[in-house]
Design brief:
5-stranded mixed beta sheet, 4 domains, globular, MutS, DNA mismatch repair protein, domain I, Alpha-Beta Plaits
Length: 367
């Protein structure tokens, strides 16, 4: 196989820089309010020079860089850019696995017969994305997902790293053990206690050592991956069954008007996304997270699918109110989701012809 892992460089921050070019030379993070409980979602490369990274609190980021520019996330905007990127990628490489808004795997073997040709296709992907969106990306090209994933981070931003067949284990060996996907903090600590600090150290473990350090099936799996052995194929896109969005507040909120406004804003975001993609859904869900981090959700299922922001917002606000009647209290987070998705639009009964056409679409979709 000739695979590639693609990762858009500092994606959220890069989009904000495109929208406002004056930000390009400034330390920038996309994240929550530094005065509250906000965290950094993405830092641009200027901010990273100050040691600022994703998942750091916005307050800590501001302490490290008092001149930091903090921009609140605009997820609807990022989805638009992401959709443009993946549409562009599919014009070059038809077989892809998107694993996030800003990353995924490409089957270069469908359009390249050799690794040198695979490198040329990776170049073409980079060039096409930059031409279509002005965004930068990094790619790792190799024979397996695990090697591609690690390689794509090797020459950021805007780099391509090719790991040819037969060199996978040698390439992986020097990296810290924690770099290997599947090695979490606990496994890293257990391995470090035994003197296992690099991926190469994991690759050299015997069966007996594995049983002691990493009992169960995870040990052999990680050792194989440390050796560059990873037979996983791409997981091609499957039909989405739900779509959702949520917002974590800087401070717990009990004001019903503010909560309703947030719910309606998210409902409009979802509806816009659904309408762009020609989908609608029958089940609307409101998610509530309280100050103690406990979560409640309330749902309602409709006889016909919807894709209108006002309607989704009305339903979600009603569900929120119902949840707060069952358990009053200030909320740390609210979310809106739509499930039971189908690929036809909401029926419009303004005239008979639209109703008949919609009914026919329903019949075709149910098959």
């Amino acid at each position: 196989m000739i695979l590639a892992h693609i990762d858009l460089d500092a994606f959220y921050a890069a989009v904000e820089e495109l929208e406002d070019p004056s930000l390009r030379t400034k330390p920038l993070v996309v994240g929550g309010d530094p005065q509250g409980r906000g965290v950094v979602a993405t830092a641009n490369y200027v901010a990273r020079r100050f040691g600022i990274r994703s998942a750091m609190s916005s307050a800590e980021a501001l302490r490290r860089c008092p001149d930091l520019v903090v921009v609140r996330p605009r997820h609807a905007l990022y989805r638009q850019y992401s959709e443009a990127v993946w549409s562009t990628i599919r014009e070059v490489v038809p077989r892809v696995e998107q694993v996030g808004i800003d990353e995924g795997y490409l089957d270069l073997g469908t359009v390249a017969a050799s690794f040198p040709r695979g490198r040329a296709v990776a170049d073409a992907v980079q060039t096409s994305i930059r031409a279509a969106t002005s965004l930068s990306c990094s790619l790792g090209v190799s024979t397996s997902k695990v090697v591609c994933k690690i390689a794509s981070d090797r020459r950021k931003p805007g780099g391509i790293t090719v790991v040819p067949p037969g060199t996978e284990a040698r390439f992986l060996a020097p990296f810290p053990a924690r770099t290997l996907p599947g090695v979490g903090p606990k496994a890293e600590e257990r391995l470090a206690t035994a003197g296992v600090k690099t991926i190469g150290d994991i690759a050299r473990l015997s069966d007996g050592e594995l049983r002691v350090m990493l009992p169960g099936s995870i040990g052999p799996l990680l050792r194989d991956r440390a050796r560059g052995i990873d037979p996983r194929d791409l997981e091609l896109e499957t039909k989405r069954v739900s779509i959702s969005t949520e917002e974590t507040f800087e401070r717990d909120i009990s004001d019903r008007a503010i909560l309703h406004a947030e719910i309606r804003r998210m409902a409009e975001e979802l509806a816009a996304h659904m309408q762009r993609n020609g989908i609608s859904g029958r089940t609307v869900t409101a998610k509530l997270r309280y100050a103690d981090f406990s979560i409640r959700s309330r749902s309602t299922t409709l006889p016909a699918p919807v894709d209108e922001g006002d309607r989704i917002g009305d339903l979600a606000c009603g569900l929120l109110d119902r949840g707060l009647r069952d358990r009053p209290g200030a909320l740390r987070l609210v979310g809106v989701g739509v499930s039971g998705l189908s690929e036809h639009r909401q029926l419009a009964f303004d005239d008979g012809s639209e109703a008949v056409a919609g009914a026919r679409n329903l019949e075709r979709g149910s098959g």
